[in-house]
Amino acid sequence: MICMENTPNFAGVHLAGDRNDFECLSKAIHAIVGDEGEFLGYEQVRQRVLEFCEEIHFTLDGQRGIAFVPNGVDKLVEKGVPVTPVSRKNAYYHFKVLWPEMLFIGFVMNEFIELSAKHRKHFWDLNPAVIRQFQAVLACCLEKTIGDKKFRLLKSALTPTFIGYYQNYYPQYIDYLNVELLKMPKEKRLANISIVAKRIANKDKNYIDLKRKIETEALLEKTCPTEVLPFELCPKEIVW
Fold first, then answer.
1. What are the mean pLDDT values of the chain's consecutive 10-residue runs (240 residues total)?
2. 168: left (phi over 0), alpha (psi -120 to 50) or beta
3. pTM
4. 157 secondary structure, DSSP code
5. Helices 126-146 & 99-115, crossing angle to 10 degrees?
6. Could you list the residue range(s) of the whole structural domain that residue 102 is in?
7. Total count of domains within the chain
8. CA gap 200, 107 in Å, rounded
9. Is residue 192 part of a domain?
């Protein structure tokens, strides 16, 4: 199972798992988000989710981090259990994701699971189960990070009241939240993670203002709002 914990300076989360963990998650996500244009008004959100899968691909390709951890074979050998010569360590791949990005993936997958329900082979279908398990890991990490009291106020947001909230959503808002979080010192980041979650779960004034700004820019540039680039980019060097 994929593990998740805070980065030292609360910029995001550190994900770790073996090859099978990440391959299963990536496969499940690809199946759930469907093909290009399949869900009307969700293409930009879909592409954002697939960028997360691309990060998984880079990780499994050895472009992020790898650690070798004991797999328990040594204990069997100590007990005298006959063990065929095998590696005594497993490779765990790991990479980091900014908190707003990770929370957005968690929230939006609720809608994709429901949108894709008509393609589900049966109620025990593996793909939504894999994603739900990943969401559960994220929820545990979030609760541990922000504490029981703040998490109780967020729990209702983990279950969407209607499908369509993220239809025609502007993912540039997640870029905005990423940048804003990175501008904060460590202690303030920690205090704002629950606020970031609320802002993603509820389209607040900041989202509405940014949406208008994007649409105005699109008119000036005579382009589609989805083609408008973030107004401020994340720094290349992140103090995780």
1. 94 95 96 93 96 95 82 59 63 94 96 86 86 96 94 86 89 95 94 95 92 92 85 86
2. left
3. 0.89
4. G
5. 150
6. 3-169
7. 1
8. 8
9. no
